[in-house]
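So, does this match?
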Amino acid sequence: MLNTLIRACAHSNDQKERAITLFHAMLSEGSVLPDKHTFPFVLKACAYLFAISEGTQVHPHVLKHGLGGDVYINNSLIHFYASCGCLEYAKDVFENMPERSVVSWNAMIDAFVQSGDYDDALRMFIEMQRLFEPDGYTLQSVIGACAGLGALSLGMWAHAYVLRKCDPNVGSDVLVNNSLVDMYCKCGSLGIARQVFARMRKPDVNSWNSIILGFAMHGQGEAAFEYFNCMVNEKVMPNSVTFVGVLSACNHRGLVGEGQKYFDMMITEYKIRPVLEHYGCLVDLHARAGLIEEALDIVSNMPMKPDAAIWRSLLDACCKMNAGVELSEGVARQIIELEGDDCSGVYVLLSRVYASAARWNEVGLVRKLMTNRGVKKEPGCSTMEIDGIIHEFFAGDVSHPQTKEIYNFLDVIEERLQFVGYVPDFSRADTVDKLDSGKQYSLRLHSERLAIAFGLLNLKPGVPIRILKNLRVCSDCHNVTKLISRIFNVEIIVRDRVRFHHFVNGSCSCMDYW
């Protein structure tokens, strides 16, 4: 009877805390002992509530009652630890299991995906295939890993696996198809994402959200608005995530009026209370459009405290718009107060603000402060996939097996750029007090330049170069990539920290607004 009550609370929307309370009462009274059915329900509630303290206290009781080898309980422990961000604990449980099921492998693969360890997720998937046939849940996680890596060919392989080897019900499963839509969007293949979406029998709100967010990150605002209208016409109620997608679409196109319209519509028509993500989109939308005072007004009138991401978008806008040193300093202080010294990008942006104002003493002080506090600039990293292999490049990298060929080809690219009149933009060079020749050399070694050279050397003509970058593309690399796409007649698709850039024949899909 207690198990039935605990299960009901664990599965409810608003009574999950009572599942933990009932479990404590069971232990305190001692008249009824927990069994193998009790623990999975309690751990489910702990996972949903991110109740790390309570869940880690449940684990010893599992061992105390001699249930440490139970596969169902261990699966629940893996899920609990992964949900609470304790990946190492989840791995320990998995590795010490005397018996594993498909669910055990699925839980562990998903744990890696949720923590961003996509390579480990795929390695575990390969290992799993020696023992079990993957199911729909497995493929969802694998497709999610491919999305995280931007690995299109691996994602297409997973899609083909679903269609050829899985039960037909898996191929039509809405969750699997949502994963596919998300993966194709994040791998830069919007056309296939649209095809997958169009073939879904009954897309749910998450399906619509995935395709709208996909259009937004590719800068296709009109398509995002069109799909939003279709969603409403299909009587699917938009939710909070839907409006994050629509507002992001406005943001990437600089549509301030449209963004304000959808923000107001969310509140008045759909009675959705704005959260930090919505305000973040609205602030960034105004700031990037040069309306910094309006953006600051939004921050001042927000019903919650702005986070570091909002202040960072303001600082980035101040840097680009030359909004003034004093304002930039004030914004930077807000970020440092929130994040401490774990915010190297703030120091870099502030350094550029001082450099733009020719305040070279402050530039030196910022760099000295970074050194004294042990703050290191986050290194630029670009990855690309060729024939199922992920290749990784850091700025100035010399570790790749083809380093010699890559650097020789960079010289060829440089000559061709000079021939068409390329002039470097030093505003994003690593050190503002270098001589121009030193700045230019540091720019040409940015990670995406190395990846582009590698792609030109190794991909067949007509195959797009697809690059995933951990930082926002700098203005000089943006200009250079446009020129390379025209000079070498190649399509280059770059997914940076913020959005996608499709470079074709000397122009970019962002229309130089990013």
